[in-house]
Design brief:
The structure holds 2 protein chains of 2 kinds.
Chain A: E1 4-8, H1 34-43, E2 48-52, H2 63-71, E3 76-81, H3 89-97, E4 102-107, H4 128-137, E5 140-143, H5 153-159, E6 164-167, E7 179-181, E8 187-189, E9 210-214, H6 217-220, H7 231-241, E10 246-248, H8 261-264, H9 267-271, H10 277-292
Parallel strand pairs in A: 1-2, 2-3, 3-4, 4-5, 5-6, 6-9, 9-10
Antiparallel strand pairs in A: 7-8
Chain B: H1 6-15, E1 17-20, H2 26-52, E2 60-62, H3 72-75, H4 83-89, E3 94-104, E4 125-131, E5 142-144, E6 169-171, E7 178-182, E8 187-189, E9 198-207, H5 228-233
Classes of the chains: A alpha/beta, B alpha+beta.
Chain lengths: 299, 238
C-alpha cells in the first residue's frame, strides 16, 4: 500500500514566473520548493502527496502548484483555492482543474448566517454554488472553515452526498482571533481545553463522504512532539470516523525544522498506538489513494 | 415530600429512568417559559461571539448563571414533583452540581452522540431533564438505553446514526415533562428534524461526597436558601 502525505504546501520565492501573495507566513524570499519536498519524501519512503495551494486565490497564484503537478503527475494531486465571494466560482474551478492535476478546492469560509437559528434553506449559503459545481464535476472539497461557519457544514454535506469532503487538520474550525504565528513563523491556533469541535465537525461522522486528515498537531498542541496532549482528540476521531476515514498528513513545510519530516511519519502510530497494521496502513496512505483516486506511481 | 412508589423504585432499578409528566404545569410553566425565553434572547449575542471566537459550541447554548437570573430556576431544583424521588435514591444526601438551561438549534444532526456522563464507579449521578417547550418525536427529544446503567450492561459503542443505538427508547413529551435518569446510562439527544429549537433544562445532581462542591459555588443565591434542606442541597454552610 502506498504511503501518501495528504496535506502539505510548496512555494517558491516571488517571481514573474510564479507570482504569489506575500504574507508573514510566506515572506517574499522564502521558498519551499517541490524538489525539497521530494527529497524528504524519498528519504522517508513516502510515495505520494496532496499539494495544497498557498499564496493566493487567483489563477495566476496557482501557477507554481500547477507546475509541480504537471512535472510530477504520478507523485502529486492538487487542491486549489476558491474564494467564497468569487463572482464566478464555476469558471474559476474549471479553469484551474482542466488538465492540471487539481482535483478539488479548499474553502475557508462557507458564507452563511453566523446564527445557526437563522439558517433557513441550504441554497442561501454562499458555498452552495461551489458544492453544486463540485457535485457536477466530481471535485473534492477541502474544508477548513471558521468556527462561526461550522454549523453550516451538515446542511451542505447532506444536500450533496456525492461530493467528497475532507475536513482539514483534525476537523478543527479555528476561532476568530485565535490564529497567529509561533516563534518558528508557522501557524499556531489557540484551542480551548474542552474540544468544542466534537459538537460540530465530529458530528459529521455519520456522512460517509466525509474524511478527516490527521495533521497540524504542532499548531494545536501545547506540548512537543509527539504531541501527547492531542492523543484523546485523535482517539475520538478514530472512534467516530473509523480507521477507513482518516488520512495522515504532515503540513510540510511547517514541520521541517521542528520536529522534522521523519518524526511526522510516525506521529499517527504514537498518538494511536492500538491501531492494527492494516488500520495504520489505511491511515498512512490507503485511504487517500482510494478516496482521492491517486494514480499508481510510474503510471 | 413525595417519595417514589414501589413501582417507580422498581423501574428506576431496572431501567435507570423515570418520567414525570406535568412535573411543571399551569402558571408555573408559563412563567418558566417566559423567563427562559427572555434570558435566552438576552444571552444569545454573547454566545454567538463566543462561537465566533471558537470558545463555544455552535449547535446549542446555555444561559450563563441561571440561578442568579431568576428565582424560578432555583425553585425547580427542589421541585416537589421529583425532589422526594431524588432524595430517596440518594438516601437523603443529595447535592446539586449545576443546571444547564439549554437551547438546542434545529440541525441536520443531533448535537451530541450517545454517551454516558460518568463511569459506573461514580457516586450516583442523576440528571433531570425538563422540557420547556413541547418536544415531539424527531424534535431533539431525549433518548436513553434502558438498563445501560447496570454494572453488568454493555459494552456499548456509539453508532453513527442516533436511531441505530440498540435497545434505545426515546422520550417525546409535552412542555413541563421531567425525565429523571441515571447518567452512567447511555443517553443522547435525538435528531431534530423540525424547524423548532428544543428548549430544556438539565439539572445535574449527585449523591454527596465530601468536598465535591465547595461552599462558595452557590454563594450568590445564599439569600434564597433559607431552609436547612435547601442549604444542604446547594452545599451552603448552615
Amino acid at each position: 500500500m502506498p504511503k501518501i502525505d495528504a496535506h502539505l504546501h510548496v512555494f517558491t520565492k516571488v517571481s514573474p514566473k510564479f507570482p504569489r501573495e506575500v504574507t508573514a507566513l510566506c515572506p517574499a524570499e522564502r521558498e519551499e520548493p517541490v524538489e525539497k519536498l521530494l527529497g524528504e519524501m524519498d528519504k522517508h519512503q513516502i510515495d505520494q502527496a496532496v499539494l495544497v495551494q498557498i499564496g493566493g486565490t487567483s489563477i495566476q497564484h496557482h501557477k507554481y502548484l500547477v507546475h509541480c503537478l504537471q512535472k510530477y503527475p504520478d507523485r502529486f494531486l492538487g487542491i486549489g483555492v476558491v474564494p467564497i465571494n468569487h463572482p464566478n466560482p464555476d469558471k474559476h474551478m474549471s479553469e484551474l482543474s482542466e488538465g492540471t492535476g487539481i482535483i478539488g478546492f479548499r474553502l475557508f469560509e462557507l458564507g452563511g448566517p453566523r446564527d445557526i437559528f437563522a439558517t433557513k434553506g441550504v441554497r442561501n449559503i454562499k458555498a452552495y454554488k461551489i458544492f453544486e459545481y463540485a457535485a457536477e464535476h466530481d471535485y473534492v472539497l477541502w474544508l477548513y472553515p471558521r468556527s462561526i461557519d461550522a454549523h453550516l457544514l451538515p446542511f451542505l454535506i447532506r444536500a450533496f452526498p456525492q461530493v467528497r469532503v475532507v475536513l482539514n487538520h483534525l476537523g478543527m474550525t479555528p476561532g476568530k482571533g485565535k490564529f497567529d504565528l509561533d516563534e518558528l513563523g508557522r501557524p499556531r491556533i489557540q484551542v480551548s481545553g474542552y474540544n468544542l469541535n466534537m459538537h460540530t465537525t465530529y458530528r459529521l461522522a455519520r456522512y460517509e463522504n466525509v474524511m478527516v486528515h490527521l495533521s497540524g498537531q504542532y499548531a494545536f498542541s501545547k506540548q512537543e512532539y509527539p504531541y501527547k496532549d492531542l492523543a484523546g482528540w485523535h482517539g475520538n476521531l478514530l472512534n467516530d470516523f473509523g480507521s477507513k476515514r482518516l488520512m495522515w498528513a504532515t503540513d510540510f513545510p511547517w514541520i521541517l525544522e521542528e520536529p522534522g519530516y521523519g518524526e511526522l511519519t510516525t506521529v499517527v502510530e504514537k498518538l494511536l498506538p492500538n491501531l492494527s497494521e492494516s488500520e495504520l496502513a489505511d491511515i498512512m496512505g490507503g485511504n487517500a489513494k482510494r478516496f482521492l483516486r491517486f494514480p499508481n506511481r510510474n503510471s | 415530600m413525595n417519595r417514589p412508589t414501589t413501582e417507580q423504585k422498581k423501574q428506576w432499578e431496572q431501567d435507570g429512568y423515570l418520567v414525570f409528566e406535568n412535573a411543571i404545569q399551569d402558571s408555573e410553566l408559563k412563567r418558566l417559559q417566559s423567563v427562559f425565553d427572555f434570558w435566552a434572547a438576552e444571552c444569545k449575542e454573547e454566545w454567538l461571539d463566543k462561537v465566533e471566537a471558537g470558545e463555544a459550541a455552535a449547535t446549542f447554548y446555555d444561559i450563563p448563571n441561571p440561578l442568579e437570573k431568576d428565582t424560578i430556576f432555583i425553585d425547580i431544583i427542589d421541585h416537589p414533583s421529583y425532589y422526594g424521588t431524588l432524595m430517596e435514591f440518594t438516601e437523603d444526601d443529595l447535592i446539586l452540581l449545576g443546571p444547564q438551561v439549554r437551547t438546542v438549534a434545529p440541525w441536520p444532526v443531533s448535537y451530541t452522540g450517545w454517551h454516558p456522563d460518568v463511569g459506573k464507579d461514580n457516586p450516583l449521578h442523576i440528571k433531570v431533564q425538563i422540557y420547556v417547550n413541547d418536544v415531539p418525536s424527531g424534535g431533539g427529544e431525549f433518548g436513553f438505553v434502558p438498563g445501560s446503567h447496570k454494572p453488568d450492561s454493555g459494552p456499548y459503542k456509539r453508532p453513527l446514526l442516533q436511531q441505530s443505538m440498540p435497545g434505545h427508547k426515546t422520550f417525546p413529551g409535552k412542555a413541563g415533562t421531567a425525565i429523571m435518569f441515571n447518567s452512567c446510562g447511555w443517553h443522547a439527544s435525538m435528531d431534530n428534524v423540525t424547524d423548532e429549537p428544543r428548549k430544556s433544562i438539565i439539572l445535574i445532581y449527585e449523591k454527596r461526597t465530601q468536598g465535591r462542591i465547595g461552599p462558595t459555588q452557590f454563594a450568590a443565591i445564599s439569600k434564597y436558601c433559607t431552609t436547612p434542606e435547601r442549604r444542604k442541597l446547594f452545599s451552603l454552610p448552615d
